[in-house]
Design goal:
Number of domains: 1
Strand content: under 5%
Number of strands: 0
CATH topology: Four Helix Bundle (Hemerythrin (Met), subunit A)
Structural class: mainly alpha
Helix content: over 70%
Largest sheet: none
Order of helices and strands: HHHHH
């Protein structure tokens, strides 16, 4: 017979699973709507990207893509190394690299926004420029949220906090949280790639 403590812990695990799934679905619907707007906007242009946009260098968005791809790769490595306490050191190193690359992504994004403003692509210069600024800023805001999640992840697996391996239910709870943080980050990486294709791929 299941005791009350075990039952409550299982309820918490089930609740976390549901909450994580719903949260990812909400984020997914938000960005799906934004990407749909991008597709509809492309259909309203005779030439895509707009000629003035071609004056911008693709080097910064490309570098951003490399940073976020590598960040996801190191995060995946960190997840794989969480199977045993002996691999925590490798997990911490991979996670720190993932977080560092996430901040590198943001740094390049700020340079890209500065280039946009220099070439007149600000919120006052038309529908395309406004949408471009909005999309990249919304994505960057979620990147900041993702980095906050990854820092929580890092705090949980620091050297002095390995106790969750000693309790099966606690380990399950922490694993659900970590999987949510990681899934959210991988999702943002995918959104960035789709956004980049939508912005730069010709009609």
């Amino acid at each position: 017979m299941i005791d009350e403590k075990t039952f409550l812990e299982q309820q918490k695990i089930d609740g976390l699973n549901i909450a994580s799934t719903i949260s990812l679905l909400i984020f997914g619907m938000l960005f799906a709507a934004l990407l749909l707007c991008l597709i509809l906007m492309r259909d309203n242009f005779v030439v895509w990207p707009p000629p003035a946009f071609l004056l911008l260098s693709i080097s910064k968005p490309t570098l951003s893509t490399i940073f976020i791809f590598l960040s996801s790769l190191f995060l995946w490595s960190a997840q794989r190394n969480l199977s045993t306490p002996e691999k925590l050191k490798k997990a911490r190193i991979s996670l720190k690299l993932s977080i560092f690359l996430g901040f590198c992504f943001l740094a390049v994004q700020f340079l890209f926004w500065r280039e946009l403003n220099t070439h007149g692509f600000n919120v006052e210069s038309g529908a395309f420029a406004s949408f471009l600024q909005a999309m990249t800023w919304i994505h960057a805001a979620h990147i900041l949220l993702g980095l906050f999640f990854l820092l929580i992840f890092l705090n949980r697996i620091r050297k002095s906090r390995t106790d969750f391996f000693l309790n099966e239910n606690e380990y399950k709870i922490q694993t659900i949280k970590i999987n949510f943080y990681s899934s959210f980050w991988h999702f943002l990486s995918l959104v960035w790639v789709l956004l980049l294709i939508g912005l730069f791929a010709p009609l």
